[in-house]
Amino acid sequence: METILTAIIAAISALLGTVIGVIVNYFIEKNKTNNQIKAERRKIYMEFIASMQDFANNNKNADMFYMFQKSINKILLYASYDVANTVNNYYKKMTELANKEKGLSVEQHIKFQNEIINQMRKDLDKHAKNIKDGFIVAFNKDNIIKKEELKNE
Predict the structure, then answer these.
(1) pLDDT tens digits, 98-122
(2) Chain segment 74-93, per-residue pLDDT in tens
(3) I want to staple 90 with a disulfide (CB 3.0 to 4.6 A). Which of 65, 73, 106, 112 is the partner?
(4) What is the DSSP string of 43-95?
(5) Separation of alpha carbons 106 and 49, rounded Å
């Protein structure tokens, strides 16, 4: 009887050890996969922000708009639901108004961009706090005063 009890305890211990090992391995792999997804999203988010900045700085350039569109497509594919939905709403509103030859107001751009940036921050770190007025500032290089022009004044 003792031998059977010892065998049962040994079998249960072996089974329990195997189950615990499988569970631990599952969570390790899941964490590794989540970290890889986050790293890819971080890269795509940075690409999107950069393309949005480039397009804001030079919104008459078709190539800049094309790069902006490509980054939006990546966002729609890889981003979290909230980020993808917010970016998609922004893009739809931009193209809808552009097709009517009337763009978004500065306030509308700021609202959308701030929401996009905060959604990205939350996606990458659930404890990230919202930032206020997180938006892209358009920069027109043609309006910069060059050193030579300053010397002439």
Answers:
(1) 667 677 777 888 888 888 888 888 8
(2) 998 889 999 999 999 988 88
(3) 112
(4) HHHHHHHHHHHHHHHTTT-HHHHHHHHHHHHHHHHHS-HHHHHHHHHHHHHHH
(5) 17
